[in-house]
Amino acid sequence: MMQEEVNEATSVLSIYGHTIKVTEVLQDGDTLTFIIVSQKLSGTGEYHVDRTYEDFEWLQQHLYAQEDVPGLQGVIFPPLPVRPQVNASAKVMKQLGFLGLGEWQPYCKALETFLRQVAAHSILRKNKAVEVFLTSTDPPGRQKLRRNIFNRLSQAVEGLRKEGHKDVDEFFHTERDHNLVLTGHTRTAAEKFLDVVLTEQKIAVACGHFAAALHICVENGEDPEKKAFSRVCVKLSQVFDSIKKNMTSIAVNDMNTLGLALDLGSRYLEAEKEMLFRRTCKLVELENARKNAERAKPVKKNAMEEVKKAAEGEFEQICKVAKQEIVQLNQERVEMLQKNLIQWCEQQLQTAKEGADAYNQHLQAFIAMA
Predict the structure, then answer these.
(1) What three-state secondary structure class fits 16?
(2) What pLDDT shows up at residue 5?
(3) How far apart are CA 260 and CA 277, in angstroms?
(4) Is 272 in contact with 256 (CB distance < 8 Å)?
(5) Which pTM does this prediction carry?
(6) Given this model, what pLDDT does residue 366 score?
C-alpha cells in the first residue's frame, strides 16, 4: 500500500470495533504472531488476520503520522504495550509486568484493548491504516517506517528544557501536576500488586510440589499402621492440591481484573504525559513566534505575523482536542477501575466459596477416617 493511500483520513471501518478480539498467539522461534478476529459490518462473516508486533508498530506510526489532522498533537494515543520477547530477561519481564504472565493471554488482552480503543476513537479510526490493519490479508508491517513528529529521541532531548516550562492555562498546569503524582502512585500500585500475584503463583507451585512429594511416603503392604499412614498422606496430598488450585485461581483473578486495570491505567497516564509534553512544546513555539513578530523588522513584519497567526490557530486546536481527551480519560479511568474492582471482588468471592466447599469436603473425609 502506498504511503499516500494509507494516510488518507477518510476511511470508514468495515468492522464493528467492539467485536475485535485477539483470539490466540502463535510462537515460531522468537517470533510471536497474534490472530485478530472482527465481525464485518455487512453481517456476512468475520475478518481473520495474523499480525506480528512489527505490524502493530506500523499501525501506531501511521496514527502518529497524520500531520494534516487538526489538533492531532492533543490526542492521548491509546498506548501500545512494549514489545513482547520470548525467554525475556528479568529487565524486560519487569517492563512487561502483568502482560508477561499467563502464557501471553494478558498480553493478547492488552493488544485487543489497544485495537478497540483505536477503532472507537473519533479521530484515529478515520485513518486508512486502521482498516488495512484489521482487514487486509497481507501483513503491513514489513514496510520501512519513517520518522515523524512524535520521534521519541528528539522528544527526550527537548524534554530537558521544555518539560518544566510554565503553562499559561491553569487547567493544563493543574493537569500536568496531577499527572505527575498519579503516574507515580499508579506505577507503584501496579508493581506492588504484581509482587502479590507472583507470590501467589510461588505458593501454588510450592503446594503442588508438596502434594507430589507426599505420594513418596505412600507404602504398599498389609501393615495396618503403614496403610493408615499412607491413607493420611494421600488425603493430605489432595488437600494441598486443592490449595494449589485455589491459589492459582486467586492469582489468575488478580491478574485478569485489577492487575490489567492497573497496567492499562499506568500506560494511559504515560500517554497523557506525552500529550501534555507535546502541547508544551507547541506553547514554546507559539511564544517564540510572538516574540519574533514583535521584534521583526518592517520588511519581515507581515511574514512573521502570518507565522504567529498560524501558530496560534494550531495551538488553539491542540488545546481544544486535549481538553476533550483529558476529560474523557479521567472519566473512563474511574469507570474502568470501578468496573475491575467489582469484577475482582466477585471473582475472588466465587473462588473463596469454591475453596471453602473443597476444604469442607476434605475435612469430612478426615473425620470419616478417624
Answers:
(1) coil
(2) 38
(3) 26
(4) no
(5) 0.85
(6) 87
